[in-house]
UniProtKB/TrEMBL annotation:
Organism of derivation: Roseovarius spongiae
PANTHER family: CYSTEINE DESULFURASE, PYRIDOXAL PHOSPHATE (PLP)-DEPENDENT ASPARTATE AMINOTRANSFERASE SUPERFAMILY
Pfam short name (any one): Aminotran_5
Gene3D superfamilies: Aspartate Aminotransferase, domain 1, Type I PLP-dependent aspartate aminotransferase-like (Major domain)
Protein name: Aminotransferase class V-fold PLP-dependent enzyme
A Gene Ontology molecular function term of the record: transaminase activity
Keywords per UniProt: Aminotransferase, Pyridoxal phosphate, Transferase
Length: 408
């Protein structure tokens, strides 16, 4: 790596840091949605001002609208290491997963099985679990109740020739541990199953080479990766063209249209190209060259190195407290900077106390009800969750540690 992350340059790309209404507050609820980078805001505003017409028509505004939508798909797919038509946009990751579940329900035969985990956000669990009502078997890959860890060896007994799909998170939004996607995918593929990876909680920490991971489906949300409220879904061609078309019948030959039954949000798709602008700007500023997937990989490594350096002191601070149960690993290496703790008070109450001290954090179950129950945490009490990304500063971490000392 040529140099550490230039935090001043990074923060200059986010208008939120110059916003008077946010001045004096430190943002630690990034797992619920990140600040939006300037290129996305600029593209969205331009689209609404200059291109807000039906795209792909013969007149200039329409032609430019369509070109900007195509630009977003092409550039982001290249950064993810997949073909352009293997990336599609939907209104949210939850909706994309629901559409996928409907396609699998039509494709599978009664008695076929799907493996899910109890580490997931409900969006990557509930749609698959509901297929049990239609005659399909749902097998649960369970986490360790003490650590929240998913052990790949525990998956193997669940795999046989009836399993069609294995669904799991790249990392949990409350446990934070980064799961070994390549290893898990190889196990599933060896058993003849496809793999669906929920990347929502990992993607904010850097775009990954989905092609190298081997996942057949990879989902994440643009509003957590510095963009608008869209769900991005990679579905590899081998699988995508097998599943029944969920879009208009005349679009069944187009892979990126097969799983988007609703009309796309043209402006937000076009604005997603701003996410690629941002990654490219970071790469250029830090001297990272190469193909799009290589530039994105270099930026990913910059982000993760910065996050790890800030994360370990927070984990140490919380791990030393007897009154706090830290969920997930206590080492920064191998986990995302999404830190959930169970306290002797409701998580929402602790978050409110932090808010009084200028710390924006979250409290609740975060749609990870199954994971919390599995670890013995009462969902109605919830957890305090503190989550940050690469634009977080050491000064903000110091403020958080001081505020935690006050409330704990």
């Amino acid at each position: 790596m040529s140099q550490p992350l230039d935090l001043d340059f990074v923060r200059a790309q986010f208008p939120a840091f110059a916003e008077p209404s946010l001045d004096g507050q430190a943002f630690f609820e990034n797992a619920g949605g990140s600040y939006t980078c300037a290129p996305v805001i600029e593209r969205l505003e331009r689209y609404y001002r200059q291109r807000k017409v039906q795209p792909y028509g013969p007149f200039a505004a329409s032609r430019l609208a369509g070109e900007e939508m195509d630009e977003a798909r092409n550039r982001l797919a290249a950064m993810l290491g997949v073909a352009a038509d293997e990336l599609s946009f939907g209104p949210s990751t939850t909706q994309n997963t629901y559409v996928l579940a409907r396609a699998f329900a039509q494709w599978m035969r009664p008695g076929d099985a799907i493996v899910v985990t109890d580490q997931d956000h409900e969006a990557n669990s509930g749609p698959w679990r509901r297929l049990a009502d239609e005659g399909f078997e749902i097998r649960e890959w369970k986490i360790d109740p003490d650590t929240g860890h998913l052990e790949p060896e525990d998956l193997e007994p669940l795999l046989d020739d009836r399993v069609r799909l294995v669904c799991f998170p790249h990392c949990s939004n409350v446990v934070g541990e980064v799961n070994p996607v390549v290893e898990i995918t190889e196990l599933a593929h060896a058993a003849g199953a496809f793999v669906c990876v929920d990347g929502v909680s990992y993607a904010p920490h850097g775009f990954v080479d989905v092609g190298a991971l081997g996942a057949d489906i990879y989902l994440f949300s643009a509003y957590k990766t510095y963009g608008p409220h869209q769900g991005l879904m990679v579905i590899r061609r081998e699988l995508g063209m097998q599943l029944p078309n969920q879009g208009h019948f005349f679009n069944q030959g187009s892979l990126y249209k097969r799983f988007t039954p609703a009309g796309p949000d043209h402006a937000q798709i076009a604005a997603c190209a701003g996410m690629a602008d941002y990654i490219d700007a970071l790469a250029a500023h830090h001297g990272i060259d190469g193909a799009p997937v290589e530039r994105a990989g270099g930026v990913h490594d910059l982000m993760r190195a910065h996050e790890d350096a800030l994360l370990q002191p927070l984990l140490d601070h919380l791990g030393d407290r007897n009154s706090v149960r830290l969920l997930g690993p206590q080492a920064a290496n191998g986990r995302a900077p999404t830190v959930a703790v169970a306290l002797d008070q409701p998580g929402a109450q602790a978050a409110a106390a932090l808010a009084e001290r200028g710390i924006m954090a979250g409290g609740g179950d975060f749609y990870a009800v199954r994971a919390l129950r599995a670890m013995g945490v009462v969902p109605s009490e919830g957890v305090l969750r503190m989550s940050f990304v690469h634009y977080t500063s050491q000064a903000e971490i110091d403020r958080l540690l001081e505020a935690l000392d006050d409330i704990l």
